[in-house]
Amino acid sequence: MSAPVRIPADVDLPDRVIGPLTARQVAILAVTGLVLYATWTLTRAVVPAVVVVLAIPFGASAAVLALGQREGISLDRMLLAAIRQRITPRHRVAAPEAVHPAPTWLSAQASAATPGQAGRTRPGALRLPAQAVTDAGVIDLGRDGVALVAVASTVNFALRTPAEQQGLVASFGHYLHSLSAPVQILIRAHRLDLSAQISELRQGCGGLAHPLLEAAALEHADYLTHLGEQSDLLRRQVLLVFREALRPAGSVTELGGRPWLARGRRRAGARDERVGARRAAEARLVRRLGDAMELLAPAGIVVTVLDAGQASAVLAAACNPDTLLPPSSGLAGAQEVITTATSSDLTAEDGHAGWRHDYCAGSDDDGDYADERDDVQGWGRDR
Known about the structure:
By secondary structure, the chain is of the alpha+beta class. Helix content is 46%, strand content 13%.
């Protein structure tokens, strides 16, 4: 009887072109060698010793950058990432139109608080691959296409018998063999918030039929509170991300039409063609989601698509994974204007919403209050 053999594979491993060197390493070393040789050819008749002294550390640095690695990442990539991080703004805000300057009164306070960093605190525009989330939960990636996120349940593989394990592997392999487009299997860990369960236990314990049940509910609520304070609770979630590119429909010339007619129709119906391509991509996503549900069901895996609020919460948590705020489906969209706060933000001393009052408390340079609508749409939303 044949036994399965585990074959390790690294799909991200770059190809070797010359011995153990990759194309990137060969390019860095070749360019460094050409620069050193050209410098030696041009200056060897004047200052040959100085060129040799300067070439040794230069060549050694290039070799270290090309051959060195840290945590699986080459040093040249880390150097480029460090330079990119240094020259980009530290703070990013969602501002599709532009980043408007802060009010004068707020800039003056920031300059007084941090005199040496006043010019470095201005945020930059945040550019994300995801541009919008439709009501159906489809993520608009702009020119890159559309994507759909679904959550998959898990199965306990270790507690299954060998025959059941082979059945699970066969079912999952059947799904993998059926793939004709990219699918990302993402296993993410996020903070587990037990505040809703604790509040429900404390509020509902008064209506229980027996005092012992009420005491048990309160004791369990105290236990959950103590557990959340003493340990960092995490929850794992398996996500399936389906992605589809925007495939333009066949042109008139491909169907045997006339070229001038094809150009006229392309100019007239360019927008309709993009809308049609997007709808076709969304239809393919729905079909692939149905195939995943059908093929993974024999393995006991339930695939559930995320709605617009849940998909937005997943994207927000991916951009800020260490946030203390639990993911909520009531997040404001990128194009929405925030003008009021919730009732929890109101205080007895302040009858206005805290965020709006803090912003509208200042005036412009002329001494008059700026237009409220323009302020909220410009700088206030970026905040």
